[in-house]
UniProtKB/TrEMBL annotation:
Protein name: ABC transporter ATP-binding protein
Organism: Halolactibacillus miurensis
InterPro entries the record matches: AAA+_ATPase, ABC_transporter-like_ATP-bd, ABC_transporter-like_CS, ABC_transporter_ATP-binding, DrrA1/2-like_C, P-loop_NTPase
The keyword tRNA-binding belongs to this UniProt entry's keyword annotation: no
Pfam families: ABC_tran (PF00005), DrrA1-3_C (PF13732)
CDD domains: ABC_DR_subfamily_A
Domain ABC transporter: 3-229
UniProt keywords, alphabetically: ATP-binding, Nucleotide-binding, Transport
KW Cell wall biogenesis/degradation (keyword) present: no
Family that this chain belongs to: Belongs to the ABC transporter superfamily.
GO molecular function, one term: ATP hydrolysis activity
Gene name per UniProt: yjjC
Amino acid sequence: MMIDVSGLKKNFGKVEALKDVHVTVEKGRIVGFIGPNGAGKSTTIRILLGLLRKDAGKAEIFGLDCYRDAVEIHKRISYVPGDVNLWPNLTGGEVIDLFIDMQGKKVASSRKEELMKRFDFDPTKKCRTYSKGNRQKVALIAAFSVESDLYILDEPTSGLDPLMEREFQALVKEQQTKGKSVLLSSHILSEVEQLCDDVVIIRQGEIIESGSLKDLRHLTRTQFIVETETDMPGFKNLPGVYDVTKNEEKWHFQVDHEQISSVLSFLGQFPIAKLETKEPTLEDLFMRHYESDDKGGA
């Protein structure tokens, strides 16, 4: 196990930032850690990095305690924050070299040059001239120039344009083929869906869902578009059918996974000209959890 977090609790005064949090990352897996601002993602990551002491529970990386053994752990991990602050009077290249030296690992100059080229990065400019995206590139190049067993990435593509985001995704997949592990905290759900094997959803300091994307898809609804020239009396009242709208001959609705067979049986009574389905996305799952309270449960 690369990351093993269980029963993790952290309070800031009377505020419960983390309540019995469980997160695991196995070797060679990419795990997406998602939730809105203030949900507890950054607090969990700071505990993993040894920057905060937990109040209760277990937080281990490589079987070592994240706080007590932080120095040893950091020899084998790379970390990219979502808001990178740099020394304004140093060049980007100088800061990359400094970050690499702090890792204490030998790096082939060809690897660093390759990453600079892939991210279209000019290392000769002073850091004070860099945009947010370029500051992010400094951290990414430094992190991926060294060979680490685990990459902890906290909103790593913040400020990057879509082309650079694709380059980042390709880079992460390359590391996975080498047997590396990744914990990716991101608010870009499409990015998590494309990259991650497993997903952990945190809400108000609690883990509300976790597992492989394949396993979690059954927790949300399948989108249907049905075209028929006749009305379908009673359809809107079927169990497991939600958000029914009709536009001319087309019906748009969602169906709970366990009710798909019964809904298809009902539809079979009518002359259907066209039927389309769309698999649920990670965004569907995420939004179902975060909108349920506002809509009185769904």
